């Protein structure tokens, strides 16, 4: 008994017991895991946020270009009305998109889940727009608009709260267009990205 008591006293005076050592190691491991998980979560969230901002910026740039082209739509080189066709997921119009006097035929449309742009240059005398010469470029992938219209159309009386024109749209009534593009990339962001904008058709404006 005396020998055992002496060993216990020596352990207390000399340092940690085996149990205390194991408990300390366990606490260190636990703290390390918590710190790792926190750091991992912060880094992951930062990457997701950065990726989402990049994706949103990419969509925003596309929408900004669309708005500018729509704003300056005008009568075609062949004399056709500025808007050729208007639907919820497609729009065909004439505008100078290359800063030249000639007007191009521009078509934005949804192909599957990709927003695409088709452009036809005017050619010949008198000018025509051959469908076979259309150059199509994909713009935005992973579109998930669903029942949300990419294009919504309004007449000259629109004051900010009225409903869009009913379909089929009377093209000659369109004076204002709203754009809504929703993108959902599961590999880049946790939530769908929605970019909206609107434009008054400068050359068709009749409500001053």
Plain-language structure description:
- It is a single chain.
- This protein has 208 residues and is of the alpha+beta class.
- The chain has one domain.
- It is 32% helix and 25% strand.
- Strand 3 and strand 4 (114-120) form a beta hairpin.
- The longest helix is centred in the N-terminal third of the chain and has 54 residues, at 18-71.
- It starts with a helix and ends in an 8-residue tail after the last strand.
Characteristic key phrases:
single chain, 208 residues, alpha+beta, three-stranded antiparallel β-sheet, 8 strands, elongated, Prepilin-type N-terminal cleavage/methylation domain-containing protein
Secondary-structure blueprint:
Layout: H1 2-14, H2 18-71, E1 83-86, E2 90-95, E3 104-111, E4 114-120, E5 135-140, E6 151-154, E7 176-183, E8 193-200
Antiparallel strand pairs: 1-2, 2-3, 3-4, 4-5, 6-7, 7-8
